[in-house]
Amino acid sequence: MALLRCQGKLINTFTANPVKERKDGVETGSMIPGKDKIQIMGDSVMQSGEKRALLQDFTCHDIAAFKQHMGKEISFEIGVMSAGDNTILFIPKGTVPELVKPA
C-alpha cells in the first residue's frame, strides 16, 4: 500500500444507498447501511498540456471532518492498493483534510 496526497475542491458529501447483503452469491435478506462519501473536483493535465476537470468519489470514515470544508480547496492523504487489474483509492481511517491556502 502506498500513501499519496490528493488535492481538489470538495464539491459534495452524501451517504450511498444501502445494499442487500450477499453470502456466496445469495442474498441473506439483511441490508448493509450505505457508506459516507465525498466528491472531489480536481484537474488532470493531458499530454497536450490542456487541463481537464475530474470528479472523484471517495468513501470517508469521518465525514464531519470533511463537511466543514464544503466548496473549499482541500488536501488529504489517500491510500492506493492494487487488486488484480483494479487500482483502489481510499481515505485511510483517521485522515483529516487540510485547507489549501491560495497562492
Give me the secondary-structure topology.
Blueprint: E1 2-15, E2 19-23, E3 26-32, E4 36-45, E5 51-59, H1 63-67, E6 73-83, E7 86-90, E8 98-99
Antiparallel strand pairs: 1-4, 1-6, 2-3, 4-5, 6-7, 6-8
Give a summary of the structure in a few sentences:
The chain is mainly beta and 103 residues long. It has one helix at residues 63-67, and strands at 2-15, 19-23, 26-32, 36-45, 51-59, 73-83, 86-90, 98-99.
Characterization of the model:
With 103 residues, this protein is mainly β. The protein has a single domain (2-17, 31-99), classed as Beta Barrel (OB fold (Dihydrolipoamide Acetyltransferase, E2P)). Helices cover 5% and strands 61% of the residues. The protein contains one helix and eight strands; from the N terminus they run βββββαβββ. It has one helix at 63-67; strands spanning 2-15, 19-23, 26-32, 36-45, 51-59, 73-83, 86-90, 98-99. The strands form two sheets. Strands 1, 4, 5, 6, 7 and 8 form a six-stranded antiparallel β-sheet that branches. Strands 2-3 form a two-stranded antiparallel sheet. A hairpin with a 2-residue loop joins β2 (19-23) and β3. The radius of gyration is 16 Å and the shape is globular. The model has no long low-confidence stretch (mean pLDDT 92).
